[in-house]
Write the structure tokens for this entry.
Amino acid sequence: MQTNNQKKLKNKIFIIWGLFITGVILVFLIILLLAMNKPQPKTDNQNQPTLTSKTNPQQEQEIYNEILNKIKNEVDELTNIKEIVYRPDDKTINYIKILDSQTKKEIKRIVYDGADDENITSIREFNPEGKLIKETFYLLDGKTISSIREFNPEGKQIKKTFYLLDGKTISSIGEFNPEGKQIKKTFYNPDGTVKQELIY
């Protein structure tokens, strides 16, 4: 009988210890949970500043238009037809004609100097009717812009812009009437301010 009582006593002690350990674990978990979920201070949303875009709608529109133009140019490059015209030696590129894939009309011509295929001397751009609308001239390095001529839809020059040696700073702008006769020339300082205006 004693063995039976001893077994019962051992079972009771085992159960008590099990309950005690379980209780300690539960208390520890509750404390841990409370520590993790600290009460957040209440914030008043009325006094909270609202996030506003730092760019104004005009800047956003300009960025949007710039992205659209880049996409259009990439699509044009993929769909347009290129014709390479060589000099008489059949080795050196004279110019590259870029044709509209639908109309087959020339929309751009990249002209190279006679020495090699790397230096561009000018780029001519044409409207859908095939009339020259813009011509960009480059310095001997083939990268730096020297001047840009712009034309009206009838093919008459309306503007000519000259640049300093950096290819970015405008030196002077000549303006022309619809018949192609120069009517005004404006000279600029390196900082972009007007230096002198000549009216013809």
User: Anything to note?
Assistant: The chain has a mean pLDDT of 85. The first strand starts at residue 81 and ends at 86. The CA atoms of residues 33 and 39 lie 12 Å apart.
